[in-house]
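Sequence, please.
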């Protein structure tokens, strides 16, 4: 377990973007028996998902979120010192997708840009990394982008994944805060690489670049192992992070979970003794979009709750196996935006 307390950093804004196409799991799913679909929907809690077309990448969703956010927070492009793009669905193996986004966003040469290859825990790790970059000095503003298009690696005949995933992108504006009395952020980060095969796309990487087995190019999930892992690690993760911050459960305004599965979320709420009204859920409308589900739950689950300082415990967990928590405070003037992405036949690069 790695824990950090980082002061002098503030989240200025969060924007999310989802495809405009809605997929109703009950009405639109044609590859499975209706009773099987209803059973999966009842267990996973995903009634509707957002799905990209075959031309849209996670970078496109993040680009729109970033454009929306930068206009809203009124950041000049030349003021951005760092760009971190978190994804496991990049445009290319080479170059890094952050370089593509750097160009599309019109950022300057002094802006350090790179990719971070993490999934369901990626928003927590990315926020920690952006905060560390600012805390180390020399940088004033970092743009954190996290996007995934897991519907493009879901196997159509596997209802455990094909009826679960949705696509989303996000942008978070993080800035050095030198005002007196700023609230520090608290991070807990963990990894167990022995479970790397429990959520994996085996084909296409350089371990097996031209894999001849079509199924290997799609995600394979050991659902039982992932469930057991989650219910084992998340309760102590919450306790350890509260202990680090010297807080009690009821002192946190909202617990923002990675939107994994309704059954898992309900189990964790009960096991951890969390107030249900402090755990927003958007899984039913957007599906499991991996790590971007954390910022998506903020923009879509806290409607009407902002306008004052709000404390959030952000929780990400999954592929790796990797998990983490961030206890942060959103300032009263934080900018929150959400947009729908309209697909195009081609995307400018």
């Amino acid at each position: 377990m790695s824990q950090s307390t980082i002061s002098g950093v503030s989240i200025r804004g969060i924007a999310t973007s989802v495809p405009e196409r809605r997929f109703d799991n009950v009405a639109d799913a044609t590859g499975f028996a209706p009773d099987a679909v209803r059973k999966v929907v009842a267990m996973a809690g995903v009634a509707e998902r957002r799905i990209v077309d075959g031309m849209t990448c996670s970078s496109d969703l993040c680009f729109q979120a970033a454009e929306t956010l930068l206009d809203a927070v009124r950041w000049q492009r030349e003021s951005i010192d760092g760009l971190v793009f978190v994804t496991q669905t990049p445009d290319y193996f080479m170059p890094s997708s952050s370089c593509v986004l750097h160009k599309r966003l019109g950022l300057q040469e002094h802006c350090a840009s790179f990719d971070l290859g993490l999934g369901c825990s990626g928003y927590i790790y990315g926020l920690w990394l952006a905060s560390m970059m600012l805390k180390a000095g020399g940088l004033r503003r970092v743009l954190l982008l996290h996007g995934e298009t897991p519907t493009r690696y879901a196997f159509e005949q596997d209802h455990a994944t094909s009826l679960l995933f949705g696509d989303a992108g996000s942008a978070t504006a993080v800035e050095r805060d030198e005002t007196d009395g700023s609230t520090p952020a608290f991070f807990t980060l963990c990894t167990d690489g022995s479970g790397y095969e429990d959520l994996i796309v085996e084909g296409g990487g350089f371990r097996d670049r031209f894999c001849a087995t079509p199924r290997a190019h799609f995600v394979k999930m050991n659902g039982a192992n992932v469930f057991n892992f989650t219910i084992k690690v998340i309760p102590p993760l919450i306790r350890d992070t509260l202990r680090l911050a010297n807080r009690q459960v009821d002192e946190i305004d909202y617990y923002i979970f990675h939107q994994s599965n309704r059954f898992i979320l309900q189990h964790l709420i009960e096991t951890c003794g969390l107030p249900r009204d402090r755990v927003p859920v958007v899984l039913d409308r957007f599906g499991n979009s991996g790590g971007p589900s954390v910022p998506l739950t903020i923009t879509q689950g806290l409607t009407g709750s902002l306008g004052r300082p709000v404390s959030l415990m952000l929780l990400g967990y999954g592929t790796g196996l990797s998990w983490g928590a961030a206890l942060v405070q959103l300032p009263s003037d934080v900018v929150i935006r959400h947009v729908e992405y309209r697909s195009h036949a081609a995307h400018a690069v």
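The mean pLDDT is 92.
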